[in-house]
Amino acid sequence: MENFEGKVVVVNGGTSGIGAETVKQFAARGARVHFTGRREEKGREVEKEADGYAHFHQVDNTDPDQISSFFEKLLKEESQIDVLFNNSGVLSIGSGPLARVKEEDWHTLIATNQTSVFLYMKHTLQAMQKQKSGAIINNAAILGNDKVNPMLPAYSGTKAAIVAMTKSTALRFARQGIRVNCISPGPTKTALSIKAYGSEEALEKSSKESPRGYYAHPEEIANTVRFLASDAASYIIGTELVVDGGYSLK
Ligand SMILES: NC(=O)c1ccc[n+]([C@@H]2O[C@H](COP(=O)([O-])OP(=O)(O)OC[C@H]3O[C@@H](n4cnc5c(N)ncnc54)[C@H](OP(=O)(O)O)[C@@H]3O)[C@@H](O)[C@H]2O)c1
């Protein structure tokens, strides 16, 4: 089991699903984990469930000032940031054929899925540049690239942008000891996907047709984030790592 003792990890969107599982995995391996989200009750639950240091910060990513205040407070408490997992995302807002997507939903989706990734990277890179080390992992999706969906033009757009931002930033910081990568999960059993499928039963039924016969557990996605954050991934830069159990091959 890798050791993240003494490392400071930030998880953007850690109150449920993939983010919550990632918080718990890093905390259980000795990291000091700071995670964000809007729902205080869920945040406190994750803090309690974590077997290690996990600190919830209430932040609404649609408000850049809240993101700035979070980093200001964080960097008074911690002298470094070793790992950033940029995970916050919504899917159902702004879904439907492009001509019917409301402008206000478009802006909410861009702010949550894309601008927050930009802002968390920007703040984190200031710390990482001073340290000359760090790993950033952004959460994209196969829906952004490998398996676009005609009913999710806005969501797919934000996820494709994350892959491009990842590659560009990775190239810029490759010689500064900072590795930037992204993951593209396929369907994963979380509140987000259950809502998208309409019900847990509908998701389970659909998952039976996938190559693995089930959709990913959030733990399996968190395992990949941990790998990319670890020294075992020291030569991996600017990669989009697809974690979909073969879903996009079909
Ligand atoms: N599940 C899948 O099938 C799948 C597949 C590919 C990629 N992904 C990506 O994985 C990421 C995590 O999704 P999930 O499936 O784990 O769903 P989830 O359980 O709904 O988690 C979404 C996370 O994003 C946070 N978030 C959403 N809006 C926010 C806002 N305005 N400010 C701060 N935090 C916000 C949520 O926190 P609060 O609600 O507390 O604010 C929550 O912690 C997303 O980026 C999603 O696109 C998921």
TrEMBL record:
Phylogenetic classification of the source organism: Bacteria, Bacillati, Bacillota, Bacilli, Bacillales
Single Gene Ontology BP annotation: bile acid metabolic process
Family to which this protein belongs: Belongs to the short-chain dehydrogenases/reductases (SDR) family.
GO molecular function: oxidoreductase activity
Enzyme Commission code: 1.1.-.-
CDD domains the record matches: SDR_c
Protein name: SDR family oxidoreductase
Record's keyword terms, sorted: Oxidoreductase
Enzyme class: oxidoreductase
InterPro entries: NAD(P)-bd_dom_sf, Sc_DH/Rdtase_CS, SDR_DHRS6-like, SDR_fam
